[in-house]
Write a structure and sequence with these properties.
With 367 residues, the protein is an alpha/beta fold. It has helices spanning 3-6, 43-56, 74-83, 99-108, 122-129, 134-147, 166-176, 190-194, 196-199, 203-219, 280-286, 288-292, 317-324, 340-349, and strands at residues 12-16, 60-64, 87-92, 112-117, 152-158, 180-185, 225-229, 249-252, 258-259. It contains 14 helices and 9 strands. It has a 9-stranded mixed β-sheet with strand order 7-6-5-4-3-2-1-8-9. The protein is globular, with a radius of gyration of 20 Å. The protein binds iron/sulfur cluster (2 copies).
């Protein structure tokens, strides 16, 4: 039996078209080593990648970054995705997206817009983003999206500076006409790990925010879908990170590396294939990085004998590495992990009375 008959095809792809971004969010999920503009794939290569993804079974592509609209060919790439039958979701900061560009994207066949909001308070939102005027731009782009009849999803990352306004951010998403909001509490790796002391909320603030958002889920039932990702450091079980490594989605970086998740490069020793040398299908089925943590054969105890191993797949490999030193360990968010006490200690300790300044993520794109 060859590998392809045992492994399900990918259904989703995150295309990080560029790491350039006008904003500087201190929890950005991009790697600390941002990829330079000079290393980005050219237009023809991205088009080939999208065609290969569609052939491999991918149904929806997230055009992301950085800020994807920093790419001059964003309209051409969107049109190509539509032509090969991919559902396109533009994940944007809104900054750098003009009305003519937005209209051109809609004409090219854009299907969906996903907009990040940093806070419900304008001044705080702009401080978190590291960009004056970002909040106002987001409201504008949300209005264009709903006027064009496109579905809008709002992303809200929760942390110390905005967690007391979690409910107001949900109200704001409803007011903007979003069909869905993802309320995600900060995941601590990369830039967020660098800023952990500045971002970590207290347990009380987290518990209140969780209760407030759950109450709004009942209030807004039928009006907006609320996806609420419970904060990691206060949970008993880990999330099924990426729905399992190499099970559904893949990520292509600006320079063409094919990754099982956006933080996979933090794990030393993994061999990633690049679209410059391999097709998307080959990278999915045969690359060493995808097969390193696929399924359950790589697991150690306590995961090996756990009844949840096909539910959460042992949690996040990158978090296991960051907090235990071994990517094959159970994610220490799990209360069954022998390293779980370290997570509890961090959650209890790292909310200092005065938060340090942010270390902004920087690889600037012109707004
Ligand atoms: S800096 Fe902010 S807006 Fe830009 S890519 Fe990172 S999270 Fe998204
Ligand atoms: S022991 Fe492993 S498989 Fe079981 S719940 Fe914890 S992380 Fe998941």
């Amino acid at each position: 039996m060859n590998a392809q008959s045992q492994i399900a095809p990918p259904t989703g792809m995150l295309a990080e078209l560029t790491h350039r971004c006008p904003l500087g969010c201190p929890y950005c999920s991009n790697p600390l080593e941002l990829e330079r503009a000079a290393d980005e794939l050219d237009t023809q290569t991205w088009k080939r990648v999208f065609s290969e993804a569609a052939e491999a079974g991918v149904l929806h592509v997230h055009l992301s970054g950085g800020e994807p609209c920093a790419r001059r060919d964003i309209v051409e790439l969107t049109a190509h995705c539509a032509a090969v039958g991919l559902y396109t979701n533009l994940i944007t900061s809104a900054v750098g997206l003009t009305r003519p560009l937005f209209d051109a994207l809609v004409a090219a066949g854009l299907d969906h817009v996903q907009l990040s909001i940093q806070d419900a308070e304008p001044a705080s939102a702009d401080r978190i983003a590291g960009y004056d005027g970002a909040f106002a731009r987001k409201r504008e782009v949300a209005a264009w999206t709903t006027q064009a009849g496109l579905p809008l999803t709002v992303n809200a990352v929760m942390h110390r500076a905005n967690i007391s306004r979690a409910a107001r951010m949900v109200d704001m998403a409803v007011e903007l006409g979003a069909r869905r909001i993802e309320v995600a509490h900060t995941q601590y790796y990369g830039w967020a790990m660098k800023n952990r002391a500045a971002l970590m909320p207290t347990r009380e603030a987290t518990e209140k925010a969780v209760a407030d958002v759950e109450a709004l889920r009942r209030k807004y039932q039928g009006r907006i879908v609320i996806d609420h990702v419970v904060p990691d450091y206060h949970a008993r079980f880990p999330k099924a990170c990426m729905n399992g490594w190499g099970r559904r989605t893949l990520n292509v970086t600006p320079s063409g590396k094919v990754l099982p998740c956006h933080a996979a490069e933090t794990i030393p020793g993994l061999e990633f294939w690049n679209v410059r040398e391999h097709s998307i299908g080959a990278a999915w089925y045969d690359s060493p990085a995808f097969n390193a943590f696929r399924g359950t054969a790589w697991m150690k105890e306590p995961c090996v004998s756990c009844e949840r191993k096909e539910i959460d797949f042992g949690g996040c490999r990158c978090q296991a590495l960051a907090l235990t030193g071994d990517a094959r360990n159970a994610d220490p968010i799990c209360h069954l992990s022998p390293h779980h006490a370290r997570v509890q200690k961090i959650a209890a300790e790292e909310a200092p009375a005065i938060a340090p300044d942010y270390i902004y993520r920087r690889l600037k794109a012109k707004a």
